[in-house]
Write a structure and sequence with these properties.
binds pyridoxal-5'-phosphate, Aspartate Aminotransferase, domain 2, seven-stranded mixed β-sheet
Length: 565
């Protein structure tokens, strides 16, 4: 068995590299280079695959095991392919994944520095970089990597609760606690209330405008209503970039409203303001971009969009905490999320005590003062949700932040926006595609519909006053989605976009599914963008010829159901 471990006498990694190459070679059978998806020849259900999976008595060879593993890579989306536009999943950079895979040979545990050496500095450094980017005092701020954006929001609620009930960790939550988010806030803002035992129904959702931004008047009314009923507000969520629309709420005004409420109701605690910026944090890199010089030669519309987002996200400095997903807009692999708090005491003490050096948790554990943290005395497990902690997240984030730098991230993100703008314009110029997110989204995603004919009435007009034609548009788009879906499977469509319910709501109450393109690959360049728009246009013309006869025969997986109401 020893041959399967790094020999301590040589520390040679030749077998590690050979194993990676072997797996790569076996996987390469399914690459399907032109397509954003790996080839998929498996038709059995998971249950029948499991019937064939048996734990063997005997050992197996690496190549037998890897052959099984390589088989299961069929159907994977290749996020580096310029046509992969299903969701906000980036291709991770090679140096970050190489570092994390290599260092995992040492099996470093982020619970405590005693075994993981100085690698925990990567976590502290990433926290420092992000605190500085956000305008927090890096010596007062703190942060922890945790298991996902969802967990950053879980921390936000937990640390809101402990402001109200500093002893909650010991004695439990006594009740009457709510949190406030907007209707566009991520569903997990409510889910974490379930996990924390205060209950999902305790998450109050405030309405937004058509751009997805919280309505401050409604927010004030919600806070007033809750506080006058004697409820306690643990956390107010501000969106720092919603998943599709990339809406960023007015953070400083939300913080001011919170302060006003503390005075008005003479609250003995301060409700936490947390920014769910797991995607939108990326705009912080543009704080220093020279929008006049425009070194990246970004399209004027892109400049406007990004400049608007920077003005909004800048206000993150008014928040008590925020979250960052490096596995979304940071080009790292899963999971690489970090929760940053303006006051590290709130992370270390698990209670409402402000003094960062106060004994914590009633167990006499001390948080080490910032200047005294050194190898041998740094033990995050004392205050983190996780006990054993993977260091792959901090390592990957550290590598990418240093590798790309601020300019590199500006380039990666700026050029994605820029290519997307060309994609939109090329599609719109045909007269057959209508961009439905152009006026109310400053994000990566493009929502669009295909029109059955040039001159067909607009999505927005039909949604209000012509239900029959709106339904026709809905059906046409669903069938076009199925058509492209089948073409993907047949290797005839390089663009994997998604079918989505979108976010538009009409006074009439009508809703149809729309196409969603969420480009994430650095290989999605201006040139590719135009080529892909042309391909989609050609497919639409092809579809016109077969519209009446087309039936879906094969697809990469079960298609989404038609949306019409
Ligand atoms: C993705 C997302 C989450 C959940 O994050 P995970 O990393 O998937 O756990 C929360 N909020 C927003 C806005 C998101 O986009």
């Amino acid at each position: 068995m020893n041959k399967h471990f790094v020999d301590p006498k040589t520390m040679s990694i030749s077998s590690f590299i050979a194993d990676i190459e072997l797996l790569h070679k076996m996987t390469s059978e399914h690459f399907n280079l032109d397509s954003p998806r790996m080839a998929n020849g498996i038709t059995e259900t998971f249950a029948s695959l499991l019937d064939k999976e048996c734990l063997s008595q005997e050992s197996s060879s690496i190549s037998d095991v890897y052959a099984d593993l390589a088989r299961y890579t069929q159907g994977i989306l290749k996020w580096n392919h310029p046509g992969a536009m299903i969701n906000v999943t980036p291709p991770p950079s090679v140096p970050s994944t190489a570092a994390a895979s290599y260092l995992s040979l040492f099996n470093p545990n982020g619970a405590q520095d005693m075994s993981s050496g100085h690698l925990l500095v990567t976590e502290l450094a990433v926290v420092k970089f992000l605190a500085e980017l956000a305008g927090f005092d890096p010596k007062r701020a703190g942060g922890v990597f945790t298991f996902g954006g969802k967990s950053t929001n879980l921390h936000a609620v937990k640390h809101g609760i402990q402001r109200i009930e500093p002893e909650a960790a010991k004695h439990g939550v006594s009740g009457d606690i709510v949190i406030v988010s907007s209707k566009q806030g991520h569903p997990c803002h409510s889910e974490v209330c379930g996990w924390l035992g205060i209950g999902e129904t305790k998450s109050l959702r405030v309405g937004t405008d058509s751009r997805g931004v919280v309505d401050l008047g409604l927010l004030e009314a919600t806070l007033d209503s809750a506080l006058s009923k004697g409820l306690k507000i643990a956390t107010i969520f501000a969106n720092g970039g919603t998943t599709i629309q990339m809406a960023i709420d007015p953070i400083s005004q939300i913080a001011a409203l919170r302060n006003q409420m503390v005075e008005k109701y003479e609250l003995p605690y301060t409700p936490r303001v947390h920014v769910d910026s797991v995607i939108g944090w990326i705009f912080l890199f543009f704080k220093t971009y020279d929008f006049v010089k425009n070194d990246l030669d970004l399209h004027p519309r892109v400049l406007e969009k990004i400049a608007r987002q920077v003005t909004r996200i800048r206000d993150i400095s008014y928040a008590d905490s925020f979250g960052v997903d490096f596995h979304k807009t940071g080009f790292c692999s899963y999971t690489s999320s970090v929760y940053i708090a303006a006051s590290r005491g709130e992370i270390y003490q698990q209670g409402g005590i402000e003094d960062p050096d106060h004994p914590i948790g009633g167990g006499g554990k001390f948080a080490t003062p910032y200047d005294e943290v050194r190898f041998g005395n740094h033990s995050p497990f004392q205050y983190t949700l996780e006990l054993s902690r993977a260091l792959s997240g901090p390592v990957e984030a550290y590598v990418n932040l240093k590798l790309f730098g601020i300019t590199g991230y500006q380039k990666l993100v700026g050029e994605l926006f820029d290519a997307t703008e060309h994609f939109r314009q090329q599609l719109a110029a045909t007269g057959r595609f209508e961009m439905v997110s152009d006026d109310d989204s400053d994000g990566f995603a493009t929502l669009f519909v295909a029109h059955p004919t040039v001159g067909f009435r607009s999505f927005f007009d039909l949604g209000e006053d012509d239900r029959a034609s709106f339904e026709e548009l809905g059906l046409y788009n669903y069938r076009f989605y199925l058509y492209c879906f089948e073409r993907q499977e047949l290797g005839r469509c390089r663009v994997a976009f998604d079918y989505s319910s979108g976010y538009h709501s009409f006074r009439s109450g009508s809703k149809i599914g729309v196409q969603k393109a969420y480009p994430v690959s650095p290989f999605f360049t201006r040139i590719e963008a135009v080529l892909m728009a042309d391909e989609l246009t050609a497919l639409l013309h092809e579809f016109d010829g077969q519209q009446d006869t087309f039936v879906l025969r094969t697809s990469p997986h079960q298609p989404r159901p038609m949306i019409f109401r």
